[in-house]
Amino acid sequence: MRIRIAVDANFVRPAPHTRDCGVFEFTMCEIFQHIGWVRKVAVFFGALAILVLVGPFGTYSDLVLTQRLSFWTVTLSGVGLFMHVGMRAAMTAKITAGISQYLQIAIGSALAAIPGASVVVFVDNVFRGLRAEDAFVFIAIQVSVIGLVIGLVEYVDWHPHESPIETSGIAAVEPDSEHQVRLMDHLSPANRGDFISLSMQDHYVKVITSNGAELVLLRFADALDEVSGVDGLRLHRSHWAVRRHIQRSERKRGRQQAILSDGRVLPISATYADAVEQSLR
Description:
Blueprint: E1 4-8, E2 11-13, H1 26-32, H2 37-54, H3 59-62, H4 65-92, H5 101-128, H6 136-155, H7 178-184, E3 195-201, E4 204-209, E5 212-217, H8 220-226, E6 232-236, E7 239-242, E8 246-252, E9 255-260, E10 265-267, H9 270-280
Helix pairs in contact: 1-4, 2-4, 4-5, 5-6
């Protein structure tokens, strides 16, 4: 069973197997619906085990095992909540759409550092009676760095990716072709239209068509397979676009990017840059 989440003009619309988020709930839905629970739980308990056993920041000498377990469970839960909100906000915001996922995670960890440090100060005061307000800035930096490391483990797909897809010689396919219908079947009827681009977002693929956008619970490799007959280009490990919707490519601030027909900008990684440039000539 595949789950569909429909998105139109920055608002979530009811789709099969999803709840109606409503206009004012869009941000929270975007942040909390797309949670990879398996990896998140594994990262949480892995980090918890290390912190309890190692006892960093003086907790090993100040607290017994059961106290360390309580201390780090509360701290990780509180800081983790803010880290999740901050990183998901950074990865889904329009203003950060054109930058790398690594930088998005770094921005998210920095955003979450202040409320996260507040959690650490509060827990320290409760469990150890420490008044750490004077070291708040230093604690915030530590929280940001640790959050960045955990975020990279949790959100980045470290599996090896396939080599650039050869696109020369691929003919354009009509909308009623078998390949297009395969991916089109995952979309709600209102969003079925001319494909523009695909983008990977955690365990989802964001499908952009001429009629709207929709998040589909599908592996990116499987989505690419379902549009293998379409005249498209792999731009990045996380982005693919239909060639005729790529208006041009340009270099900005040292990074190559593609300008699409709908005005969006997608990054072009070095791996695919030569193939993209050759195909657009």
